Amino acid sequence: MRNSQTYLFFFICFLALSCNNKKGPDVSQIKVEISVERFDRELNTVNTSNIKEKTDELRKKYTWFYDDYMEQMLGVGSPSSGPSYLNSLAPVLQNPDYLELRSSAEKVFPDFGPHEQDLTEAFKHVRYYYPKQKIPRLITFISGFAVQTPIGNDYIGIGLDMFLGKEGERFYPALRQSIPQYIARRFTPENITPRVIEAFAREEMFPEDDKDRNLLSKMIYNGKILYMMDAFMPAAQDTLKIGYTGKQLTWCKENEGGIWAYFLESELLFESDYMKIQKYLTEAPFTPGLGDNSESAPKLGVWTGWQIVRAYMDKNPDITLQQLILEKDAQKILTESKYKPKI
After folding, report:
1. In this structure, is the dihedral angle defined by the CA atoms of residues 298, 266, 259 and 207, taken in order, positive or negative?
2. pLDDT per residue as tens digits for the range 292-307
3. How many other CB atoms are there within 10 angstroms of residue 261's CB atom?
4. Mean pLDDT over residues 137-156, rounded?
5. Quick check: 112 and 21 in contact, CB under 8 A?
6. What φ, ψ does residue 6 adopt, rounded to 5°?
């Protein structure tokens, strides 16, 4: 019995390993060390007796982020207009809801070390493919669910209140009108690195071209972003990269041929009316028009674009990641991918 159990254990381990994504390049010699700055904790030291002195210190240290945080994220006013914004800041920092949220963030993130390691590994891969890429400051904050991973001048913010996991579930029901459950379910600590890397890829490294208006162009653009995430986070699960549940990812794989046939038969690839194509690209509980009983996965244009780009790179192993990103001809990528999933 013991021998059969041992065999079963190794067999399960083998299956688990075989299901992992591709192993990435060796980045051990790349010098990147991420040190996340805990602005949320430093703001905790501010009180009514030291508010002017402490906020001046924080503004000097955090520069662009500080001003953006106060004016755009917390909404208490612009520090550049003078100290009057402090009259709005003081009651926010004493608000019971804010204090409860702050306490929850401290409970979930007493030590940010594991996330720093994950982010360091991801940004090492960024530097592997883009040696001259500047690495941003990473700064944690709490904003009352205003924004998750904002990007500003030289920084990426990490809104801890939007990564609380189970600890945050008691807050999320009150936010249903502004943040639906299908988005809030991804407010977990394991989403920190994928969301930071996605934001960095989309907004800093490879912003979408305004000229890309038809569905195919947008599919390929999103496919490139997810392929970049493949490269920068080779060990991450596909569900985390695209934000699917396991059930949604399985549905896509089982219906891949039917999804592609639907796009072709509906003559959607070259449709540029955003009102007609946005439902295949944006967040939603499912994709209308595909699947039975609302069981389809959302943003199927994004997922299909990812599969096309993967197929293109598999068929063209000599093409580098940089060359892929620079290729502006979406039709060429589709044609050379020979993408034709079975129905």
Report:
1. negative
2. 878 999 999 999 999 9
3. 13
4. 96
5. no
6. -60, -45
